[in-house]
Specification:
The protein is of the alpha/beta class and about 220 residues long. It is built from 9 helices and 6 strands. It folds into 2 domains: about 140 residues, HAD superfamily/HAD-like (Rossmann fold, 3-Layer(aba) Sandwich); about 70 residues, Orthogonal Bundle (DNA polymerase, domain 1), CATH 1.10.150. Strands 3-2-1-4-5-6 form a 6-stranded parallel sheet, sandwiched between helices.
């Protein structure tokens, strides 16, 4: 049974936890879908949440049953085009785009000597952290291209614990996607879901929004 006194570190997803970059993913993927005459749906918008670039592209192509129409090279080109557009959009980020409550929460963790890392499927995470001016809070960032499997597999969050040099059981993972919560749990870490509790019901602890997340509340939940 996890107890707060055992917690030594925190692993953060990025999109939807530290900043709302998910909206930029949606915009960029929607543009690709429309170029390919594929109908953009709420199911696609929620489906791409938390998964890597090629998995997102395959989800979109499979929704119209056209994945077989494209060579691997064409798929890579589509994914690259999406990412170029996405990078243009995230280039507009500023420190004001850190989600409500998260700056204060990062300061709390730092003041309590709790180590932090980033467990994001985004290869652009270091660039985003720089734009938000919060890079210095984190020991390191998982390189998603170096892990065997993306979320919901445990690899990314397991690697986030390694970066912190901590036993996964002493790490709290924060996520806003169901795939991410599954990943945290599979890695043997303590899962915190931010968002719809019905969607994130596998999380050990739930918060409706980032503004509700505090160290005191997490401590209270774990010491219940």
């Amino acid at each position: 049974m996890a107890h707060f006194d055992d917690v030594k570190g925190f692993a953060f997803d990025l999109d939807g936890v530290l900043a709302d970059t998910a909206k930029f993913h949606s915009q960029a993927w929607r543009q690709i879908a429309e170029e390919l005459n594929i109908t953009w749906t709420p199911e696609l918008e929620s489906g791409i949440k938390g998964i890597d670039r090629m998995s997102s592209l395959m989800l979109i192509l499979n929704s119209a049953d056209v994945a077989g129409n494209y060579t691997e090279e064409q798929k890579e080109a589509l994914a690259t085009r999406k990412n170029d557009h996405y990078k243009e959009l995230i280039g507009t980020l500023t420190p004001d785009d850190v989600l409500p409550g998260m700056h204060k929460f990062l300061d709390e963790l730092k003041a309590n000597n709790l180590k932090m890392s980033i467990a994001s499927a985004s290869k652009n995470a270091p660039f985003i952290l720089d734009k938000l001016q919060i890079s210095d809070y984190f020991v390191g960032v998982v390189d998603p291209s170096k892990v065997k499997e993306g979320k919901p597999a445990p690899d990314i969050f397991a690697e986030a614990a390694k970066i912190l040099d901590l036993d996964p059981a002493t790490v709290v993972g924060l996520e806003d996607s169901a795939a991410g919560i599954t990943s945290i749990n599979a890695a043997g870490e303590i899962s915190v879901g931010i968002g719809d509790k019905a969607l994130l019901h596998e999380a050990k602890i739930n918060f409706p929004s980032t503004a509700d997340v505090t160290l005191a509340k997490i401590r209270a939940h774990l010491n219940w």
